[in-house]
Design a protein that fits this description.
two-stranded antiparallel sheet, 4% strand, mainly alpha, two-stranded antiparallel ribbon, 62% helix, globular, single chain
């Protein structure tokens, strides 16, 4: 796979939020403001890049039986480092993200890429995969947050927008509005990928990048 393809697939084709439906919890929680979305995306990308790099570097050293606990230790270490940096240099963002910043430890995107990609590929490819997936995660959060902040708060990155500021649609700042936007964005991504995610689910194990190492058998296209 070309280096550019490794990076670009995380943007649309395999977007972790809109196509793979991972990281939905922080996507809903911090997407009320565009600045929070960018901050969460940058923090998650930094953790993803660091964990992918280290796990790929040590993939032949880590015993297979304890690989998941080892991954979690690495991820937790990078999350702690990022959390301290954000608290020291961007305290308003640290307060805004709250509990969702340390919860990056259990973000499915981070652990998923460690197990599915970094554990099976070289350091450079794993780093590029982290950059692509992190950028896709950030873009998805920013797109959702932009719509919610503009229509729900009448502002964008804190800058007031005339008329909308005086006539906000409050539901967009609430959980129901977030889920509505989230659903519409997933539909748009599905349209752009021409139903790629739905086709993968229908095919079962066929075409899955981890089918060779999954250990499952398949009968008539359905994993058993």
């Amino acid at each position: 796979m070309g280096k550019l393809n490794i990076v670009s697939r995380g943007l649309i084709k395999e977007n972790p939020v809109l196509v793979l439906a991972l990281g939905a919890c922080p996507a809903m929680a911090v997407s009320t403001q565009a600045s929070n979305a960018v901050g969460m995306g940058a923090a998650a990308t930094a953790v993803l890049l660091g964990s992918n790099f280290v796990i790929s570097l040590l993939r032949n050293v880590i015993p297979d039986k304890v690989r998941i606990p080892c991954y979690i230790v690495f991820i937790a270490g990078f999350v702690t480092l990022v959390q301290m940096v954000v608290e020291a240099y961007a305290y308003p963002l640290y307060e805004a993200l709250g509990i969702f910043l340390p919860l990056i430890v259990v973000n499915c995107i981070i652990l998923g890429r460690a197990e599915m990609y970094a554990n099976k590929n070289g350091v450079l490819d794993s780093a590029l995969d982290a950059i692509g997936m992190g950028a896709g995660f950030t873009m998805a959060l920013l797109a959702i947050a932009t719509i919610r902040e503009i229509f729900g708060d009448g502002a964008w990155f804190g800058m007031a927008i005339p008329w909308l500021r005086e006539n906000p649609i409050m539901i967009f700042t609430m959980p129901p509005g977030g889920f509505i936007i989230f659903g519409c964005m997933i539909a748009l991504a599905n349209k752009l990928t021409k139903g790629g995610s739905a086709k993968k689910r229908a095919e079962g194990c066929i075409g899955c990048s981890s089918a060779a190492s999954c250990g499952k058998t398949e009968e008539k296209g359905v994993a058993l």
